[in-house]
């Protein structure tokens, strides 16, 4: 079974796109916040739930946007690779170029997706801490 350009592209793109989209919405805060002195734990838990919901609303949709940018980079790499392969070689060169371009596009998009994940978590943590501080809880860097 010979690998035609269309078969190479059909194999390379789904694998490449599956590797790229990896940014996710934060599952919760990664910072420590303590209850205010004499605040009942049940009230603190209510504050936490409300502030986690607030923080989630502040970063909503950012993970999907980061993944879409990464997938776009991989797709652009595949198209450019195919164009370069066709210009240099023949139809087989186009398939090889597309596969190579998809791989290069993925390797370029991967670190940016990882950076985006960290930035989303940072924004989530900031929103969470602001909310918890406003509700009278103790945020380590911002003691009352």
Automatic annotation (TrEMBL):
Record's keyword annotation contains Signal: yes
Keyword Signal found: yes
Superkingdom assignment: Bacteria
Domain YMGG-like Gly-zipper: from-to ranges: 69-108
Keyword field: Signal
InterPro entries reported for this sequence: Gly-zipper_YMGG
UniProt xrefs under Pfam families: Gly-zipper_YMGG
Signal peptide (UniProt feature, chain positions): 1-23
The protein, known as: YMGG-like glycine zipper-containing protein
Organism of derivation: Comamonas guangdongensis
Organism lineage string: Bacteria, Pseudomonadati, Pseudomonadota, Betaproteobacteria, Burkholderiales
């Amino acid at each position: 079974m010979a690998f035609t350009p269309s078969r190479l592209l059909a194999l390379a793109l789904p694998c490449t796109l599956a590797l790229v989209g990896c940014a996710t919405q934060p599952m919760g805060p990664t910072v420590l916040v303590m209850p205010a002195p004499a605040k009942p734990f049940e009230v603190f838990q209510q504050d936490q739930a409300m502030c986690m919901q607030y923080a989630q609303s502040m970063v909503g949709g950012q993970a999907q946007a980061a993944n879409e940018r990464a997938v776009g980079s991989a797709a652009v790499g595949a198209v450019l690779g195919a164009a370069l392969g066709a210009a240099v070689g023949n139809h087989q060169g186009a398939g090889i170029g597309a596969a190579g371009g998809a791989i290069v596009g993925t390797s370029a998009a991967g670190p940016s997706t990882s950076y985006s994940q960290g930035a989303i978590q940072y924004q989530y943590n900031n929103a969470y801490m602001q909310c918890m501080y406003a509700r009278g809880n103790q945020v380590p860097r911002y003691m009352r």
